[in-house]
Design the sequence.
């Protein structure tokens, strides 16, 4: 069984791109070569700031979609390991 990873990639303009891959180093090289995605081709790449591993692709894709719905501040908080800030930034559920 192949392990998958979800990653946050800081782009050249400060945006944070969320993606998934079964080989993050290869995927990072693809992004830097302009072959990773349209977003990274347009806005440029920086560095991977966060990764998580998952046992299967479906789990990784679910987490990636969750990250894509997050604010910039929440993505920075998880990348920094600041779980108190992450909790404070979470939307209240009624």
Sequence:
């Amino acid at each position: 069984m192949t392990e998958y990873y979800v990653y946050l990639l800081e782009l050249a303009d400060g945006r944070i791109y969320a993606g998934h891959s079964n080989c993050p180093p290869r995927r990072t090289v693809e992004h830097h070569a302009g072959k990773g995605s349209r977003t990274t081709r347009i806005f440029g790449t920086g560095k991977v700031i966060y990764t998580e591993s998952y046992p299967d692709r479906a789990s990784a894709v679910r987490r990636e979609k969750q990250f894509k719905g997050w604010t910039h501040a929440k993505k920075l908080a998880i990348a920094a390991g600041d779980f108190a800030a992450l909790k404070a930034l979470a939307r209240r559920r009624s």
Observations:
- Helices lie at 24-32, 38-43, 57-68, 72-80, 83-89.
- The CA atoms of residues 25 and 87 lie 30 Å apart.
- The longest helix spans residues 57-68.
- Residues 4-89 form a domain with the GIY-YIG endonuclease fold (CATH 3.40.1440).
